[in-house]
Amino acid sequence: MTETIVAGTWAMRTVAGKATRVLVTEKYSGSARVANGASRAVSDRDSASQAVATQDLRVDLPVAAPMLTDGDEIDVTGSTSDQSLVGLTFEVTGIPDMGQVTAHRYPVKEQT
User: What is the CATH number of the domain that holds 59?
Assistant: First the structure.
């Protein structure tokens, strides 16, 4: 796992007169991996008669990490493989793969 993340819930607060996103509840902080979805397939979608290609994103956490829930947010704070990931925020959009797995793979969407 090549990324470092902080996962939990955030809220907007006024700090020194400015709206600031602050961590309310930290659920996990540590190593992770940001990757394309399990199939790594690009799916074609038809949107208003225009072909659109999308790839599902996921964030993989160690199986020993606490469980995240739908709506939790993940901030990428470091990466040894892709510095363009640092500073991105993702929202958990479902439950991870579980059972006999090497990591919990959470479906996510990028926050803008």
Answer: 2.40.10
